[in-house]
């Protein structure tokens, strides 16, 4: 019975199409953007949604004859919700592309749905190396933690840092950061006397920072996800770690542009390695930052915004290149190998790995015109994810 009803519905739909009375729907190209809009990772959702809307405002909402519809859903960063929403978007909304993914567990939860439904999944935030291996339909526009961590492990020993304690959020990206930083740092002759892990949900940094104070390394290397950096910085200052001669280093997630300006002087001089700074001096970035801030009550874009903006670019370009047809495999093929100038600098979607190849910058927090910025002072060009060298 059920099957028959479905067949009849399909036949009716085909008839409608043939008679030229197809609903406007058919012309619509749907992007299902699943993000954490509330809860602990809400800043990531806000940044990416704002960037996607900016992209559309700048580039129009018609591509290769198709009307682009952005469908935003809030997964509150709970992977069960992400999975449920992805299922619903694929089955009921018939989205052409899935996108977003604020944290690694969300991306991994959706990977099998992308594979089974042959729907490209553009990962705009989550950054554990292995994500792109979870489905051949995943393309990433963000970054990976191994990609940005190695540069710091090369910089630190050349700058008087011989012992480092690592402190990471205890899940995929944190474990990647810990591994790739500490292995490279040890290879360069450094010592890592302790590796500390804090829970992802509601972390209390105090006992961990006390431990670091007692160990008294030259520096503390930190990875916490976007949104958690200010809390680390505040407690680092309150415990007088900087005055005790312990430097703070890390990936740029900790000096996140979304929060940096409110962190206060404790952040001054902190050196991090990352793929994006809102202070990146290119004309493309200056335009991006100015227009983003104008459209969002002076909110400064962070690296999440750039992942969202570039992810939209990858989708638009793929739709154009595949002649507006919008089938999953054609879109995926047209996403692979894209080369373009991002606000972060030149980037490339590696056709083999479907991961992003990009510059990694060393940056130091400085005050310019009364505001705190991550000021780039060195660059390692065209860095591939070192997690993929198997
Ligand atoms: C992840 C990686 C999330 C880096 C982040 O912020 C981040 C992730 C929300 O893969 O879960 O800064």
TrEMBL record:
Query: Leucine-binding protein domain: from which residue to which, for each copy?
Result: 30-368
Q: Which UniProt keywords apply?
A: Signal
Which range is the signal sequence, renumbered to this chain? 1-24
- What InterPro entries does the record point to? BCAA_transport, Leu-bd, Peripla_BP_I
Q: Which domain of life is it from?
A: Bacteria
User: Matching Pfam families, A to Z?
Assistant: Peripla_BP_6
SUPFAM superfamilies recorded: Periplasmic binding protein-like I
Q: Which residues form a coiled coil?
A: none
- Record carries keyword Signal: yes
PANTHER family linked: LEUCINE-SPECIFIC-BINDING PROTEIN, PERIPLASMIC BINDING PROTEIN OF ABC TRANSPORTER FOR NATURAL AMINO ACIDS
Recorded family membership: Belongs to the leucine-binding protein family.
Name recorded for this polypeptide: ABC transporter substrate-binding protein
């Amino acid at each position: 019975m059920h099957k028959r009803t479905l067949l009849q519905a399909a036949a009716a739909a085909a008839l409608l199409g043939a008679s030229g009375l197809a609903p406007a729907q058919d012309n619509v190209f749907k992007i299902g953007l699943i993000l954490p809009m509330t809860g602990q990772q809400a800043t990531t959702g806000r940044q990416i949604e704002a960037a996607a809307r900016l992209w559309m405002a700048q580039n129009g909402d018609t591509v290769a004859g198709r009307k682009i519809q952005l469908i935003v859903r809030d997964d509150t960063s709970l992977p069960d919700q992400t999975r449920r929403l992805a299922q619903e978007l694929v089955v009921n909304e018939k989205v052409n592309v899935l996108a977003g993914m604020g944290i690694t567990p969300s991306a991994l939860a959706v990977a099998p749905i992308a594979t089974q439904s042959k729907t490209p999944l553009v990962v705009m935030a989550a950054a554990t190396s292995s994500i792109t291996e979870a489905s051949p339909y995943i393309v990433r526009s963000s970054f990976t933690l191994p990609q940005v961590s190695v540069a710091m492990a090369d910089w630190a020993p050349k700058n008087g840092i011989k012992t480092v304690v690592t402190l990471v959020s205890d899940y995929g990206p944190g474990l990647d950061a810990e591994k790739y930083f500490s292995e490279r740092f040890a290879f360069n002759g450094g010592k890592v006397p302790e590796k500390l892990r804090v829970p992802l949900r509601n972390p209390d940094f105090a006992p961990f920072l006390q431990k670091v104070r007692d160990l008294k390394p030259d520096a503390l290397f930190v990875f916490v996800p976007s949104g958690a950096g200010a809390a680390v910085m505040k407690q680092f200052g309150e415990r007088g770690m900087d005055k005790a001669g312990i430097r703070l280093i890390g990936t740029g997630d900790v000096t996140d542009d979304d929060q940096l300006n409110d962190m206060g002087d404790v952040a001054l001089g902190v050196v991090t390695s990352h793929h994006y700074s809102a202070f990146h001096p290119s004309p493309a970035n200056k335009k991006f930052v100015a227009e983003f801030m104008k459209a969002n009550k002076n909110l400064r874009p962070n690296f999440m915004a750039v992942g969202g903006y570039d992810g939209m670019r990858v989708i638009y370009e793929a739709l154009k290149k595949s002649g507006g047809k919008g089938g999953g495999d054609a879109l995926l093929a047209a996403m692979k190998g894209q080369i373009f100038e991002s606000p972060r600098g030149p980037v490339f979607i590696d056709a083999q790995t479907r991961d992003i190849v990009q510059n990694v910058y060393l940056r130091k927090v400085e005050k310019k015109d009364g505001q705190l910025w991550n000021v780039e002072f060195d660059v390692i060009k065209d860095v591939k994810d070192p997690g993929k060298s198997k």
